[in-house]
Amino acid sequence: MSTVFRRRISTVIPPKVASPNIGAAKDAARMSRIVDFYGKLPRGAPPAVKTSNLLKRYHDAYFGDKPSAMPLVHIIGGLFAIGYAQQYYFHLRHHKNNAD
User: Fold this and answer.
1) What phi-psi label fits residue 44: left (phi over 0), alpha (psi between -120 and 50 degrees) or beta?
2) Phi then psi for 22, rounded to 5 degrees?
3) Residue 19: exposed, middle, or buried by beta-carbon count in 10 A (0-12, 13-18, 19+)?
4) I want to staple 92 with a disulfide (CB 3.0 to 4.6 A). Which of 62, 77, 79, 88 is the partner?
5) Are 18 and 10 in contact (CB under 8 A)?
6) Which residues contact 70 (CB under 8 A, 6 or more apart)?
7) What whole-number distance in Å separates Cα of residue 23 and Cα of residue 50?
8) Rounded CA gap, 40 and 38, in Å?
9) What would the DSSP string read from start to end of 23-83?
10) Global pTM exceeds 0.70
């Protein structure tokens, strides 16, 4: 048979029939190792990773699946606390002991 004819006929014949050495014992042992390896891998979705960073936890709590308006309340409360601290430092601390 010519090589052109063999090349044309090799596309028609499935590879297992065309090369009888594929199903040899060494290939079967290798395939069983591969099947065992993939059989030991975990199935399903991976477990959710808990974040340890403070900003990521804050983001997950208020901006994640259920966003809320609490960050606005936190910003307003923070600005109020900073403003009161500045007022106390620059003005109110001078009147603390002097009631006149």
Assistant:
1) left
2) -65, -40
3) exposed
4) 88
5) yes
6) 62
7) 47
8) 5
9) TSHHHHHHHHHHHHHHHHS--SSPPPPPP-SHHHHHHHHHTSSS--SHHHHHHHHHHHHHH
10) no
pLDDT, greater one: 29 or 73: 73
Amino acid letter, 76: I
Structure-token pair, residue 56? 């990521």
List the structure tokens of 49.
């990773």
**Residue pointed to by tokens 């199903």:** 23
How far apart CA 79 and CA 72 sit, in angstroms, is 11
Residue found under tokens 């403003």: 83
> Which residue bears the tokens 């606005």?
72
Instruction: Give the integer Cα–Cα distance in Å for 15 and 39.
Output: 26
- Give residue 55's identity as a one-letter amino acid code: L
Question: Looking at this protein, which amino acid is placed at residue 12?
Answer: V
